[in-house]
Amino acid sequence: MIYKNLLYIGFLAVALHSCKEDYKGIKTQTPSNSNNSDPVKLELGLVETVQKQTYAYVTNAKNSKVTLCSINEAGNLENCSDDNHTFSRPGGIAIKNRKIYVSNYGSKKVTICSISEAGNLENCSDNNHVFSSPVDLAIHKGKIYVSNYESNKVTICSINEAGNLENCTDDNHTFSRPYGIAIKNRKIYVSNYGSKKVTICSINEAGNLENCTDDNHTFSSPNGIAIKNRKAYVSNYEGKISICSINKSGKLTKCTDTSHNFSYPEGIIINNGKAYVMNFGSEKVSICSINKSGELTECADASYEFGQPIDIAIAKAP
How many C-alpha atoms does 20 have within 13 Å on its Cβ side? Predict the structure, then answer.
């Protein structure tokens, strides 16, 4: 467990390899050039739509880069390459309104980039606020929520019209080595590596946290967390993904671990019936199908070798 502490100081350093939704826009575009359109459809007033390319953005602790990959129709990653911008031990990543937000454990800043028409990052700059130890982040209704591993706090910032962060303050609740953050139905779910619990808080009208309580289930080593269709998916650094049902009050129930073993899993995201799991140890992204019961099946690693992947965001091209 000494390595775990070093990991977060160095944001998951190499030694562990030997020992440790919010925004997914589904959009269609009307082509501006109709030369190739069916003239019969044009005559009838029918307009064709073109599906925009879906991209995955993966943060890498080893080389402080964000890797951009295309996602094909089968849900696999292809054409992966590192973006030119260098971050500072990047961790959490989220996308909103053609802006990408990346937490940097090294610089203690959040980097904000625009997303070009081709899906590339541009005009990247650090926000002014200095966090204590930013790990993960999530966006909800004009607010960004950032977990701070060392101070045991979640910082809440407003997002202004230009997409920048302002009025950042720490919430009053004290967590226990908070790591992953997920938001669903005005509830925030924070995985605590220290207590091995998931804390569930309500989000009030002002965007602040209230009525925070730890869920009853004890995880083995919770890191990343994702929520989809009344299921919570919690990555455990020891190698399993825990899948829990979410009841009507937002609590976790019937938690079970996957049979598949991952390699020090970190962030996880669910998109179009697929789960994408970041494997810090093997430096691969595992892609699993999700069956009707919400279980992970047919897990396989993408061919591209990342640089100790931490988190992932997925979005359509602008």
Answer: 21
Nearest-CA neighbor of 314 among 68, 50, 73, 141?
68
**Residue of 234, 217, 218 whose CA lies nearest to 268:** 234
* pLDDT in single tens digits along all 318 residues of the chain: 433 443 443 443 333 333 333 433 322 233 334 344 454 444 455 555 567 899 999 999 999 999 999 999 999 999 999 999 999 999 999 999 999 999 999 999 999 999 999 999 999 999 999 999 999 999 999 999 999 999 999 999 999 999 999 999 999 999 999 999 999 999 999 999 999 999 999 999 999 999 999 999 999 999 999 999 999 999 999 999 999 999 999 999 999 999 999 999 999 999 999 999 999 999 999 999 999 999 999 999 999 999 999 999 999 988
The CA-to-CA distance between both ends of the chain, in Å, stands at 42
**Cα separation of 283 and 263, whole Å?**
8
CATH topology of domain 22-28+50-232+304-316: Methylamine Dehydrogenase; Chain H (2.130.10)
Pairs from 169-175 (Cβ < 8 Å, separation ≥ 24): 171/208, 171/209, 172/209, 173/199, 173/201, 173/209, 173/212, 175/147, 175/199
